[in-house]
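thread: overnight batch results

M.L. [08:02]
morning all. the overnight job finished for the chain we discussed friday. pasting input first so we're all looking at the same thing
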Amino acid sequence: MISKEKQMELDRLLDGDLSKEEQMRIQVVLERDPEAIDWLADRAWMHANLHKSMQRRGLKAGAERISKEKVVSFFGMSAKTLRGTLAIAAVLALMLTLIFKKGPLADSSFATLEETHAALWESGDLPTSNGSRLGQGTLRLAEGLAALKFDSGAEVILEAPATLELFDSMNCRLAAGTAVSDIPDSALGFRIKTPTADVVDYGTRFAVSVFEGTGETHTQVIEGKVQVEDAKSGEVVELTTGQRNTVLGETFGKPTEGENQEPSTLPAKPIKHGPEWTLLEPVKDAYTGYVKSHNSNTLLLVKNALESETITRIAYIGFDISEVLQETIEEAELLLHFTPTGWGLASHVTDSQFSVYGMVGDVPKWDESILHGKFPGKPDTVHLGSFHIPQGVQKGRFQIKTEALTEFLRDHTNSEISFKVVRDTVESENGGLVHGFASRRHPVLPPPTLAIRQIKVIQ
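M.L. [08:03]
and the structure it wrote out:
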């Protein structure tokens, strides 16, 4: 059994605290005392086990070779002198420990999470605070936007709900959601893999959207050129500015003009009010701003385009309040359930304000076919309220509950009332997000709902 004093000295060697003179003295001890080597071997292996995670994160064979050379040089003896393989391994582990203690581990990160907007994260294995350095791992963004910058220079904006796996500064995998990429010359060849396709950028900006569950992949080129390869067949197509492509199952679409298609929607929580509330569903709803191959029968689309002098898409909702005694209305609330449309890019629209107007005066008759044209006539309107949706948020229940809405319902002379919903905020770049909320035809989400609370009338 070696002395406590000698054990403490060997521990100091493991900690890298010995001077050159002390190291030379320990060398002599190890050459003459096999028991000291055995004790050091056990101690060194214990230290080595503490650094297994370090070794898993990038210990190279070349580093082991260099470290072994340092061991032999340090102790001034051949490997045979060190009492067999166990001692060699022990001292090698010792020197690797010393090397790691002298400086930080080699940085294995290759990207930075620069900023987020209204972000809500789900379980992943990478840090999610702004400014975090990112290495290999997975990000799962439930809501909002997240901007990443790779060390190659590639910039990616992740639009929720999205799952992105990072491989290195030139490669990642999008399992769900949308990734909008801006690629400088330093990152030409940046690659985004999906379950069904492999998208390679050749400059400058493009967007990839993946529908979770099916793996359906939509690629849209905002500016520049990309190459899309079918993951199964290997078929390749080249897309240029303004073109898109769809890959799903055995279908590998040809380049077309336009934007993404409407994805599926998850159910929302039901509307709950007290027994004193009356909940009304629309008798009709529609929107204006028909665009060929870019419409929905289940959503009411709302947009304010950059290049248009007028608000591009406006939603209209009609209710029948004939069964409501108007003079007893105490308060009212209009609820709308937003959901992703799959059209346009959320990163091209800032925090958005929406306004709800009530139609007054001589309101023309209208029906649900108006999406193919303009609203008939130009009726007078009154502003009833506004609500805001943060950038990147595309789903959720939004509402107005104002005195103006209550007065509008009390004072309206007809049993049928009409609202219009507009997005006041103009997109910041062309191709911006088309917001959408559930219509009365949506198979899952609640329709637009008018909730009215009335005063009890004493008979």
